[in-house]
# Entry
Amino acid sequence: MEDPLNPYVSSIVQYYSRRVGRRGPYGVANALQKAQSADANSLDQIFLNGGDLAWRAYFVVNKDAGSEHGYEGLGELTRFLDELGTQPVGHQLAFAKRLDAAMQSAQQQEAENDEGNIVRKSTKRRRTAIENGTLPLPTPNTTPDDASTDYTDLEPSSQHGSAIRQDGVHVDASLQAVKPLLPVDFFHAIQRVPHSQKPGTLVADITLFVQKGQTRDNFGCQMEIGIVKEKIAYYARKLCGVEVEVKDGVRYIRYPSGSKIEPDPSLKLRACQRDMIPVLLGHEINAGFSASPIYKREAEEVRDDTDGVSITIPSQEKEGVYRLSSPPERGAYRGIGKEVVIFGKNRRFK
# Structure
Protein backbone atom coordinates (compact mmCIF):
# COMPACT_ATOMS: atom_id res chain seq x y z
CA MET A 1 0.00 0.00 0.00
CA GLU A 2 1.41 3.36 -1.02
CA ASP A 3 2.19 5.82 1.75
CA PRO A 4 -0.38 8.67 1.48
CA LEU A 5 2.37 11.22 2.15
CA ASN A 6 4.50 10.18 -0.83
CA PRO A 7 2.71 12.50 -3.29
CA TYR A 8 3.09 15.49 -0.95
CA VAL A 9 6.83 15.00 -0.51
CA SER A 10 7.28 14.74 -4.27
CA SER A 11 4.95 17.65 -4.98
CA ILE A 12 6.70 20.04 -2.58
CA VAL A 13 10.13 19.16 -3.98
CA GLN A 14 8.87 19.72 -7.53
CA TYR A 15 7.09 22.93 -6.59
CA TYR A 16 10.28 24.31 -5.03
CA SER A 17 12.23 23.40 -8.16
CA ARG A 18 9.73 25.09 -10.49
CA ARG A 19 9.46 28.24 -8.41
CA VAL A 20 13.06 28.97 -7.41
CA GLY A 21 15.38 26.48 -9.13
CA ARG A 22 19.03 26.87 -8.21
CA ARG A 23 18.93 30.55 -7.31
CA GLY A 24 17.12 29.83 -4.07
CA PRO A 25 14.17 31.76 -2.63
CA TYR A 26 14.19 35.52 -2.05
CA GLY A 27 13.60 37.08 1.37
CA VAL A 28 15.17 34.17 3.25
CA ALA A 29 17.27 36.20 5.71
CA ASN A 30 14.39 38.05 7.38
CA ALA A 31 12.12 35.01 7.32
CA LEU A 32 14.85 32.88 8.88
CA GLN A 33 15.28 35.30 11.78
CA LYS A 34 11.55 35.16 12.45
CA ALA A 35 11.54 31.36 12.21
CA GLN A 36 14.41 31.04 14.67
CA SER A 37 12.52 33.09 17.25
CA ALA A 38 9.13 31.48 16.56
CA ASP A 39 7.30 29.31 19.06
CA ALA A 40 8.88 25.87 19.48
CA ASN A 41 5.69 24.15 18.30
CA SER A 42 5.10 26.37 15.26
CA LEU A 43 5.47 24.90 11.79
CA ASP A 44 8.27 27.39 11.13
CA GLN A 45 10.32 25.92 13.97
CA ILE A 46 9.32 22.35 13.17
CA PHE A 47 10.49 22.60 9.56
CA LEU A 48 13.63 24.43 10.65
CA ASN A 49 14.40 21.58 13.03
CA GLY A 50 13.72 19.13 10.22
CA GLY A 51 16.49 20.63 8.12
CA ASP A 52 17.55 23.73 6.20
CA LEU A 53 16.18 22.51 2.87
CA ALA A 54 12.90 21.40 4.42
CA TRP A 55 12.42 24.86 5.91
CA ARG A 56 13.26 26.59 2.63
CA ALA A 57 10.70 24.47 0.79
CA TYR A 58 8.10 25.23 3.46
CA PHE A 59 8.99 28.93 3.28
CA VAL A 60 8.42 29.06 -0.48
CA VAL A 61 5.03 27.34 -0.30
CA ASN A 62 3.92 29.39 2.70
CA LYS A 63 5.07 32.65 1.10
CA ASP A 64 3.27 31.91 -2.16
CA ALA A 65 0.11 31.05 -0.24
CA GLY A 66 -0.07 34.68 0.87
CA SER A 67 0.41 36.09 -2.62
CA GLU A 68 -2.19 36.88 -5.27
CA HIS A 69 -0.66 34.50 -7.81
CA GLY A 70 -2.36 31.19 -8.46
CA TYR A 71 0.66 28.95 -8.96
CA GLU A 72 -0.01 25.43 -10.19
CA GLY A 73 -0.42 22.97 -7.34
CA LEU A 74 -0.27 25.65 -4.64
CA GLY A 75 -3.82 25.18 -3.41
CA GLU A 76 -3.37 21.48 -2.69
CA LEU A 77 -0.05 22.04 -0.89
CA THR A 78 -1.51 24.86 1.18
CA ARG A 79 -4.41 22.68 2.29
CA PHE A 80 -1.98 19.89 3.18
CA LEU A 81 0.19 22.21 5.31
CA ASP A 82 -2.92 23.52 7.06
CA GLU A 83 -3.89 19.95 7.88
CA LEU A 84 -0.33 19.09 8.93
CA GLY A 85 -0.53 21.97 11.40
CA THR A 86 -3.29 20.11 13.26
CA GLN A 87 -1.18 16.97 13.74
CA PRO A 88 1.02 16.12 16.77
CA VAL A 89 4.45 17.74 16.80
CA GLY A 90 6.14 14.37 16.35
CA HIS A 91 4.23 13.77 13.11
CA GLN A 92 5.09 17.23 11.85
CA LEU A 93 8.80 16.76 12.57
CA ALA A 94 8.68 13.34 10.91
CA PHE A 95 7.38 14.88 7.71
CA ALA A 96 9.87 17.77 7.86
CA LYS A 97 12.83 15.39 8.15
CA ARG A 98 11.50 13.27 5.35
CA LEU A 99 11.08 16.32 3.12
CA ASP A 100 14.62 17.45 3.92
CA ALA A 101 15.99 14.04 2.89
CA ALA A 102 14.04 14.21 -0.38
CA MET A 103 15.33 17.72 -1.09
CA GLN A 104 18.91 16.62 -0.43
CA SER A 105 18.50 13.63 -2.73
CA ALA A 106 17.03 15.79 -5.48
CA GLN A 107 19.85 18.32 -5.28
CA GLN A 108 22.44 15.56 -5.21
CA GLN A 109 20.87 14.00 -8.29
CA GLU A 110 20.86 17.36 -10.05
CA ALA A 111 24.56 17.86 -9.30
CA GLU A 112 25.38 14.38 -10.59
CA ASN A 113 23.38 15.05 -13.75
CA ASP A 114 25.29 18.28 -14.28
CA GLU A 115 28.59 16.47 -13.85
CA GLY A 116 27.49 13.84 -16.34
CA ASN A 117 26.40 16.51 -18.78
CA ILE A 118 29.82 18.15 -18.61
CA VAL A 119 31.54 14.82 -19.28
CA ARG A 120 29.29 14.07 -22.22
CA LYS A 121 29.83 17.52 -23.66
CA SER A 122 33.60 17.26 -23.36
CA THR A 123 33.60 13.97 -25.28
CA LYS A 124 31.27 15.47 -27.92
CA ARG A 125 28.42 13.19 -27.02
CA ARG A 126 24.85 14.35 -26.99
CA ARG A 127 24.10 16.34 -23.86
CA THR A 128 20.94 15.56 -21.92
CA ALA A 129 19.77 18.84 -20.38
CA ILE A 130 17.37 19.35 -17.51
CA GLU A 131 14.36 20.91 -19.17
CA ASN A 132 13.04 24.24 -17.91
CA GLY A 133 15.44 24.17 -14.97
CA THR A 134 13.39 21.55 -13.13
CA LEU A 135 14.72 18.55 -11.27
CA PRO A 136 14.31 15.10 -12.88
CA LEU A 137 11.71 13.96 -10.37
CA PRO A 138 8.77 11.60 -10.77
CA THR A 139 5.19 12.80 -10.92
CA PRO A 140 3.29 13.48 -7.67
CA ASN A 141 1.78 9.99 -7.92
CA THR A 142 5.18 8.30 -7.52
CA THR A 143 7.99 8.44 -4.98
CA PRO A 144 11.68 9.26 -5.56
CA ASP A 145 13.66 6.11 -4.78
CA ASP A 146 16.21 8.15 -2.82
CA ALA A 147 13.49 9.64 -0.64
CA SER A 148 11.39 6.58 0.09
CA THR A 149 11.45 7.16 3.82
CA ASP A 150 8.83 7.13 6.51
CA TYR A 151 8.08 6.67 10.17
CA THR A 152 6.85 3.14 10.83
CA ASP A 153 6.56 3.99 14.50
CA LEU A 154 3.87 6.62 13.94
CA GLU A 155 0.29 5.50 13.93
CA PRO A 156 -2.08 6.88 11.29
CA SER A 157 -4.00 9.93 12.49
CA SER A 158 -7.74 10.06 12.15
CA GLN A 159 -7.91 13.86 12.33
CA HIS A 160 -9.73 15.27 9.31
CA GLY A 161 -9.59 11.82 7.72
CA SER A 162 -5.82 12.09 7.37
CA ALA A 163 -3.31 9.26 7.70
CA ILE A 164 0.05 10.64 8.83
CA ARG A 165 2.24 7.58 8.48
CA GLN A 166 5.82 7.44 7.24
CA ASP A 167 7.85 4.27 6.59
CA GLY A 168 11.64 4.09 6.37
CA VAL A 169 12.48 6.90 8.82
CA HIS A 170 12.75 5.82 12.45
CA VAL A 171 12.74 7.90 15.61
CA ASP A 172 12.07 7.63 19.38
CA ALA A 173 15.28 5.79 20.31
CA SER A 174 15.13 4.89 24.00
CA LEU A 175 17.82 6.55 26.11
CA GLN A 176 18.16 3.36 28.14
CA ALA A 177 18.80 1.29 25.01
CA VAL A 178 21.22 3.80 23.48
CA LYS A 179 23.29 4.36 26.62
CA PRO A 180 25.29 1.08 26.64
CA LEU A 181 26.09 1.42 22.92
CA LEU A 182 28.00 4.70 23.14
CA PRO A 183 30.95 6.24 24.99
CA VAL A 184 29.80 8.14 28.08
CA ASP A 185 30.83 11.56 26.77
CA PHE A 186 29.10 11.07 23.43
CA PHE A 187 25.93 9.72 25.05
CA HIS A 188 25.64 12.84 27.19
CA ALA A 189 26.30 15.04 24.13
CA ILE A 190 23.21 13.69 22.34
CA GLN A 191 20.21 15.99 22.38
CA ARG A 192 17.14 14.79 24.31
CA VAL A 193 13.81 15.38 22.56
CA PRO A 194 10.17 14.58 23.39
CA HIS A 195 8.78 11.21 22.30
CA SER A 196 6.64 11.64 19.19
CA GLN A 197 3.62 9.97 20.82
CA LYS A 198 4.26 10.04 24.56
CA PRO A 199 4.27 13.60 25.91
CA GLY A 200 6.55 13.94 28.90
CA THR A 201 8.86 11.11 27.80
CA LEU A 202 12.32 12.01 26.52
CA VAL A 203 14.17 10.01 23.86
CA ALA A 204 17.52 10.32 22.11
CA ASP A 205 17.53 12.63 19.08
CA ILE A 206 18.51 9.86 16.67
CA THR A 207 16.85 9.37 13.29
CA LEU A 208 17.56 6.47 10.96
CA PHE A 209 16.81 6.85 7.24
CA VAL A 210 16.34 3.52 5.44
CA GLN A 211 16.55 4.85 1.91
CA LYS A 212 16.48 3.27 -1.53
CA GLY A 213 18.06 3.81 -4.90
CA GLN A 214 21.31 5.65 -5.55
CA THR A 215 21.63 7.14 -2.07
CA ARG A 216 21.46 3.69 -0.51
CA ASP A 217 23.89 2.25 -3.05
CA ASN A 218 26.44 4.97 -2.28
CA PHE A 219 25.96 5.47 1.45
CA GLY A 220 23.86 2.60 2.77
CA CYS A 221 21.39 3.66 5.44
CA GLN A 222 21.96 7.01 7.11
CA MET A 223 21.69 7.98 10.76
CA GLU A 224 21.25 11.51 12.08
CA ILE A 225 22.28 12.30 15.65
CA GLY A 226 21.36 15.63 17.22
CA ILE A 227 24.15 17.10 19.37
CA VAL A 228 23.65 19.66 22.14
CA LYS A 229 24.88 23.14 21.25
CA GLU A 230 27.64 23.12 23.90
CA LYS A 231 29.41 20.21 22.19
CA ILE A 232 29.28 21.29 18.54
CA ALA A 233 32.64 23.08 18.58
CA TYR A 234 34.32 20.19 20.40
CA TYR A 235 33.26 17.49 17.93
CA ALA A 236 33.86 19.72 14.89
CA ARG A 237 37.43 20.22 16.07
CA LYS A 238 38.06 16.58 16.97
CA LEU A 239 36.44 15.00 13.91
CA CYS A 240 37.16 17.56 11.20
CA GLY A 241 39.95 19.74 12.58
CA VAL A 242 37.76 22.83 12.24
CA GLU A 243 37.58 25.64 14.80
CA VAL A 244 34.01 26.79 15.43
CA GLU A 245 33.60 30.00 17.43
CA VAL A 246 30.57 31.88 18.71
CA LYS A 247 30.01 35.62 18.97
CA ASP A 248 26.74 37.21 20.06
CA GLY A 249 24.97 33.88 19.65
CA VAL A 250 26.13 33.38 16.03
CA ARG A 251 28.54 30.61 15.04
CA TYR A 252 31.32 30.96 12.51
CA ILE A 253 34.40 29.06 11.37
CA ARG A 254 37.70 30.86 11.82
CA TYR A 255 40.44 30.57 9.20
CA PRO A 256 44.11 30.87 10.28
CA SER A 257 44.30 34.04 8.16
CA GLY A 258 41.61 35.64 10.31
CA SER A 259 38.79 35.31 7.78
CA LYS A 260 35.46 33.85 8.87
CA ILE A 261 32.83 31.61 7.31
CA GLU A 262 29.32 32.23 8.64
CA PRO A 263 26.63 29.57 8.08
CA ASP A 264 23.56 30.91 6.23
CA PRO A 265 21.56 29.42 7.85
CA SER A 266 23.77 26.34 8.19
CA LEU A 267 26.79 24.66 6.64
CA LYS A 268 27.88 21.06 6.34
CA LEU A 269 31.36 19.76 7.17
CA ARG A 270 32.66 16.61 5.53
CA ALA A 271 36.02 14.80 5.26
CA CYS A 272 35.89 13.58 8.86
CA GLN A 273 39.03 11.86 10.19
CA ARG A 274 38.31 8.13 10.04
CA ASP A 275 40.53 7.15 12.97
CA MET A 276 38.61 9.49 15.30
CA ILE A 277 35.23 7.83 14.76
CA PRO A 278 35.74 4.84 17.12
CA VAL A 279 37.49 7.08 19.67
CA LEU A 280 34.75 9.72 19.85
CA LEU A 281 31.58 7.99 18.66
CA GLY A 282 32.29 4.48 19.91
CA HIS A 283 32.95 1.04 18.48
CA GLU A 284 29.26 0.22 17.90
CA ILE A 285 28.84 3.16 15.52
CA ASN A 286 32.23 2.53 13.93
CA ALA A 287 31.39 -1.15 13.34
CA GLY A 288 28.32 -0.21 11.35
CA PHE A 289 29.95 2.69 9.56
CA SER A 290 33.01 0.69 8.50
CA ALA A 291 30.74 -1.79 6.69
CA SER A 292 28.97 0.91 4.66
CA PRO A 293 29.51 1.14 0.88
CA ILE A 294 31.19 4.55 1.01
CA TYR A 295 33.63 3.48 3.75
CA LYS A 296 34.72 0.43 1.77
CA ARG A 297 35.15 2.48 -1.38
CA GLU A 298 37.24 5.08 0.44
CA ALA A 299 39.35 2.34 2.05
CA GLU A 300 40.27 1.10 -1.41
CA GLU A 301 41.35 4.66 -2.21
CA VAL A 302 43.56 4.64 0.93
CA ARG A 303 41.92 7.77 2.31
CA ASP A 304 42.49 9.04 5.85
CA ASP A 305 39.21 10.95 5.88
CA THR A 306 35.67 10.08 4.89
CA ASP A 307 32.68 11.75 3.28
CA GLY A 308 30.42 9.19 4.95
CA VAL A 309 30.17 11.35 8.08
CA SER A 310 29.00 14.95 7.98
CA ILE A 311 28.32 17.63 10.58
CA THR A 312 25.59 20.20 9.95
CA ILE A 313 26.28 23.40 11.89
CA PRO A 314 23.52 26.03 12.14
CA SER A 315 24.45 29.70 12.30
CA GLN A 316 22.53 30.26 15.53
CA GLU A 317 23.95 28.78 18.72
CA LYS A 318 21.61 25.79 18.75
CA GLU A 319 21.87 22.05 18.33
CA GLY A 320 23.81 20.54 15.42
CA VAL A 321 23.35 17.31 13.49
CA TYR A 322 25.73 14.47 12.63
CA ARG A 323 24.86 12.20 9.71
CA LEU A 324 26.60 8.84 9.37
CA SER A 325 26.34 6.04 6.83
CA SER A 326 25.81 2.40 7.75
CA PRO A 327 25.35 -0.78 5.71
CA PRO A 328 21.82 -1.41 4.38
CA GLU A 329 21.73 -4.97 5.71
CA ARG A 330 22.86 -3.98 9.21
CA GLY A 331 21.68 -0.43 9.66
CA ALA A 332 17.95 -1.01 9.39
CA TYR A 333 15.38 -0.74 12.14
CA ARG A 334 12.50 -3.19 12.11
CA GLY A 335 10.19 -0.78 13.87
CA ILE A 336 11.05 1.30 16.88
CA GLY A 337 9.60 -0.16 20.05
CA LYS A 338 10.07 -3.59 18.48
CA GLU A 339 13.20 -5.58 17.74
CA VAL A 340 15.88 -3.40 16.20
CA VAL A 341 18.74 -4.62 14.05
CA ILE A 342 21.42 -1.97 14.32
CA PHE A 343 25.08 -2.39 13.46
CA GLY A 344 24.71 -6.15 13.26
CA LYS A 345 23.34 -6.70 16.77
CA ASN A 346 19.81 -7.12 18.08
CA ARG A 347 18.69 -4.23 20.25
CA ARG A 348 15.36 -3.30 21.75
CA PHE A 349 14.54 0.42 21.69
CA LYS A 350 11.66 0.51 24.10
About this structure: Residues 6-144 form one domain. The chain is about 40% helix and 15% strand.
